[in-house]
Design goal:
Elements (H helix, E strand, L loop, with lengths): L2 H8 L11 E6 L8 H12 L2 E6 L1 H6 L2 H8 L3 E2 L7 H6 L4 E4 L4 H8 L6 H12 L2 E4 L3
Parallel strand pairs: 1-2, 1-4, 2-3, 4-5
Helix pairs in contact: 1-4, 2-4, 6-7
Length: 137
């Protein structure tokens, strides 16, 4: 069974609150990252959301991208390929959640420094009017 098939078995198993919505999880290198796969699965179970993950390189050192691929059923973006994934995905998302939101990442977003997939995604979302959530708000 593929990861995607596994996700379809649990999608909306508890509610349909987020059915048809796209939620981007933008992961940074904070130690509480170990809880994020559970959060991704709950977004899928309780809401039916399509969850897509962007990870900074530091985040990928603490939590393997393959785990997030399993948790969401979608590819994980650590490095951008030049196909403007951050624009195509983050600008059309219903919500972007930066978690854990490290002080470094918050300061980069605030100052317009787009040097990781996470900061580019967050800045694209902000510029597009997408709802943006940080674990430090």
């Amino acid at each position: 069974m593929s990861f995607r098939e596994d996700i379809e078995l649990i999608r909306s198993s508890r509610s349909n609150l987020l059915r048809g919505k796209r939620v981007v999880l933008a992961l940074t290198g904070g130690i509480s990252i170990y809880r994020i796969p559970d959060i991704a699965r709950e977004l899928i179970r309780h809401g039916g959301a399509d969850v897509i993950t962007f990870m900074s390189k530091e985040a990928s050192k603490l939590l393997g991208p393959r785990i997030m691929e399993w948790a969401t059923g979608n590819p994980v973006y650590v490095e951008l390929s030049g196909y403007a994934e951050h624009v195509n995905i983050c600008a059309t998302a219903n919500a972007v959640v930066v978690a854990p939101a490290t002080a470094n990442t918050i300061s980069k977003i605030a100052n317009g420094i787009g040097d990781t997939s996470v900061t580019l995604c967050a800045m694209t979302a902000l510029g597009s009017g997408v709802h943006y959530y940080s674990s430090r708000q």
